[in-house]
Amino acid sequence: MSLFGKSQHDSTTETEAPATTSGVLAETPAERPVPSTSGREREHIQGGASVANIGKSITIKGDLTGNEDLQIDGTVEGRIDLPNNQLTIGADGEVKAEVTAKAVTVIGHVTGNLTATDKIEVEGAGIVDGDVRAPRLIIQEGAVLNGAVEMGHKASGAAAASASPPKPVASSSAGASAEG
Description:
Layout: H1 2-26, H2 39-47, E1 51-54, E2 59-65, E3 69-72, E4 75-89, E5 94-106, E6 109-111, E7 114-122, E8 127-129, E9 132-134, E10 136-139, E11 144-146, E12 149-151, H3 154-163, H4 166-179
Parallel strand pairs: 1-3, 2-4, 3-4, 4-5, 5-6, 5-7, 6-8, 7-9, 7-10, 8-11, 9-12
């Protein structure tokens, strides 16, 4: 009985040990299901940059300022000011605000004017009800933009427009006269 008990115990231990080990191996990070993320979220995660998040169940009323990238999946009403950072309005995001940021990506819905110093991107599911101002504007097929569009740097563009035409014409005329 003792031999039989040991062999039964040993065989049980041997069969249980690999099952436990294989169970642990099955839960390694490489085999765990990866939660789906948008391309932009993956860029932030892979790049190591931190992104502040306003979740689906969060509502903010008032002014929002900061010095880091922000993703909004909840509701924000008021004013958003992120002059040196990226703002992403996620698929579930609802923003009713005047927005100023370095770059803005709209996947959800924005009601209010958007101003960016770098670019504004409205993805296929994005809706913008308001004016947009940025040097670059990207609007994907299926996106909705109801408002005026102003592209370029207004102050520097106006100065360059008034100063640039006379200088090349004067330089070209003077250069041609001096050479000819």
